Amino acid sequence: MREHELTIEELLPKTGWAKIKLGELGVFVKGKGIARSDVCEEGYPCLRYGEIYSTYETVTTGLVSKVSPSAADQACALEHGDIVFAASGETAEEIGKVVTYTGKERAWVGGDTVILRGHGQNAVFLAHALNSDPVVRQKARLGKGQSVVHIHAPDLATVEVLLPPLSEQRKIAAILRIWDEALEKLSALRSTKARQLGGLAQTTMGRGGVFPAHWQQKPLSKVCTPVKRKSSGGDHSVMTISAKSGFLMQSDKFARNMAGRSVERYTLLHEGEFAYNKGNSKTAPYGCVFRLDRDTALVPFVYYCFALKPGLDPEFYDHLFAAGALNYQLSRLINSGVRNDGLLNLYSDDFFSCRVPVPPIEEQKRIAQALTTAKRELALLDEEIAALTDQKRGLMQKLLTGEWRVEASDDEEAAA
C-alpha cells in the first residue's frame, strides 16, 4: 500500500513555517526562445530549456551552451537568484522542473521557461522546495494539454510553498548543496568517461561505417547463421528490444504481454545470439542489434535473428553493433521509410548483405576487453549516481517537510 503523501496543509501545523503563494513572493518573467541556430561555440552563457531537466537545482557559472550576441538581444537575461521553471513537458509530472541561477556572470535563458524574480528568499532553498513532492503534485494538477503539457505564470502564481525563516532556509540549502555538488562531480566524470568510450569505439572500430583498412570485411551472411527456431515448450521469457535499453521483458515495456497467441510464431533465442529490431525510433533510426545475455528468450518473429559462426568473438560484435557500425549501409538499403506497422522497409537478404569487419581474433578480443571495461566503469558511475540521488531525495523529504529541523546559530540569525 502506498504511503500517504502529505499536503502543504497537513505539513503546516507540524512545522510552524509560513505558507506562501508564489505570486506573493515576486514577479514572473516569460523566457524567450533561442533557436538552435543561435547556439554557438563562442558567445554569451546560455541556459537552454532542455538543460533544465539535465541539471540539479543549482546552476552557477560554466554553462555549457553559448548564444550569439545578436540572439542574446532577443533572449531573456538571467539575474543572480532567479528561479527558472521549465514550462512544458511530456507529462504533467514533468512540468515545472525548477533550477536557480546562482552565477555572477551575465547569462541568458531560452525556450519555454518562466522566471520568478525578486522573491526575497534563499534561492537554493526555494529551488529545492519547488521540486519537492507536495509542490510537484500541485504543478501537475495545474498542467494543461495532452501530447505536450504546459503550465503558465498565472497558474504558477497560485502554487503554495512552505517557507521557514531565512536562517533555516540557508542552513537547509547548505546541507542539500553538499549532495548537489557530489552529484555534479559524478555526472561530470560520467560525461567525460562517456566521451572517452565514444572516442575509443571510433578509434578502434572506425567512424561512419569506414573500418580500419587492414581489416578484412565480409557480408553478415558469411559470418553468421540465421536463427529461426520456434519454441517446443518450456518456460521462456517473452522479450522485446528497446533501442535505449536492449532486451526488455515485454510485460515491463508495455505493462502487459503483447504476444498473445502469436507467441507460437516467436523466435527462440539462446544466450549469446543476436537479434535485429528493424523498428524505427529517434534513438535508432535504422533499427538496432543486441545480444541476448540470458539463457533463452522468445522475441517477435519480425526480428532478424542470428548466431555468429565459430572463431569470432561475440563481445566484439556486440560493441560493433552498439556503435551503429551498420547504420550507413542500412540507410542506403532502406528504400521507402517506415511501414504502417512502424517497421523499416528492409528485407532479410538486404540486412544480411551488410558487410562487417573481421579482424584477427586476438585483435577482436583485445578491443572487446577495452570497451567492456570502459562500459563497466560507466555502469558503476550510474549506480553511484542513482544511490546518491536516492539519498538526496530521502534527505529532502525530511528537511523540506520540517520532519528534521535544523537550528541556526546566533550569528547566523543575526546575519539573516
Question: Can you tell me about this structure?
Answer:
By secondary structure, the chain is an alpha+beta fold. It has three domains: 8-163, DNA methylase specificity domains (Adenine-n6-DNA-methyltransferase TaqI, Chain A, domain 2, Alpha-Beta Complex), CATH 3.90.220.20; 165-209 and 362-411, Helix Hairpins (Orthogonal Bundle); 216-358, DNA methylase specificity domains (Adenine-n6-DNA-methyltransferase TaqI, Chain A, domain 2, Alpha-Beta Complex), CATH 3.90.220. Helices cover 37% and strands 21% of the residues. The chain contains 14 helices and 23 strands. It has helices at residues 8-15, 49-53, 69-72, 123-130, 133-142, 153-156, 166-205, 220-223, 250-254, 314-322, 327-333, 348-352, 361-399, 410-415, and strands at 18-21, 27-30, 39-47, 58-59, 65-67, 76-78, 83-86, 88-89, 98-101, 107-109, 113-117, 149-150, 160-163, 216-219, 224-226, 239-242, 246-249, 267-270, 274-277, 288-291, 296-299, 304-308, 355-358. The strands form eight sheets. Strands 2-11-7-9-4 form a five-stranded mixed β-sheet. Strands 5-3-10-6 form a four-stranded mixed β-sheet. A four-stranded antiparallel β-sheet has the order 15-22-19-20. Helix 4 crosses helix 7 (166-205), helix 7 (166-205) runs antiparallel to helix 13 (361-399) and helix 10 (314-322) crosses helix 13. The chain starts with 7 loop residues before the first helix and ends with a helix.
